Amino acid sequence: MNEIIVGIDGSETAEIAAQKAAALASECGRPLHVVMAIKKHTSTQFSTGGSDTWQVDSLAEAEQSLASIISTLRLEAEVTSVVVVDDPAAALCSEAERTGASIIVVGNRRVKGISRVLGAVATDVARQAPCDVLIAYTT
């Protein structure tokens, strides 16, 4: 078994899937690659009227969020991470192919009902993945 990939987006479902992926990586002695996808990279500068200015960068914000979530995982394995500007399912599948991953772990939220027809991330990953997919029970 090679690397294990999990996608996170800040949702409770994704965090549960990440915890399960971390446990699997630890038990199997495999590295964990954590992926966060953002729709687009934006950077905005704000001025408060004085000499203070603030720079808000979506990529930097995503990287901070990713690091924060990784710090909560109970992990006894090597961890790498990346923020990708792409659709979440496409990002996970691309990273799996790029790293030669053995498995992608995703949560099961919104895999049922009408959202299945609309294309939930788990459903899209299962259709496009270049490797095995574990849909973790998170609801």
What characteristics describe this protein?
Rossmann fold; 7 strands; 5-stranded parallel β-sheet; two-stranded antiparallel sheet; 27% strand; alpha/beta; 5 helices; 139 residues; elongated
Explain what you see.
This protein has 139 residues and is α/β, with parallel strands linked by helices. It has a single domain (4-136), classed as HUPs (Rossmann fold), CATH 3.40.50.620. It is 40% helix and 27% strand. The chain contains five helices and seven strands. The chain has helices at residues 12-28, 58-71, 88-99, 114-118, 121-128, and strands spanning 4-7, 32-38, 43-47, 53-57, 79-85, 103-107, 132-136. Strands 5-2-1-6-7 form a five-stranded parallel β-sheet, sandwiched between helices. Strand 1 (4-7), helix 1 and strand 2 form a beta-alpha-beta unit. It is elongated. Residues 114-119 have low confidence and may be disordered.
Mean pLDDT across all amino acids? 85
Specify the number of helices. Answer: 5
Poorly predicted runs are: 114-119
CATH class: Alpha Beta
Largest sheet: 5 strands, parallel
Per the principal axes of the C-alpha atoms, what is the gross shape? elongated
Radius of gyration: 16 Å
H and E string: EHEEEHEHEHHE
Query: Can you tell me the CATH superfamily?
Result: HUPs
The number of domains: 1
Strand order of the largest sheet: 5-2-1-6-7
Q: What's the helical proportion of residues?
A: 40-55%
How many β strands by DSSP?
A: 7
How much of the polypeptide forms β-strand, as a percent range?
A: 25-35%
Structural class: alpha/beta
Second-tier CATH architecture: 3-Layer(aba) Sandwich
Report the CATH topology name: Rossmann fold
**Distance from first to last alpha carbon:** 27 Å
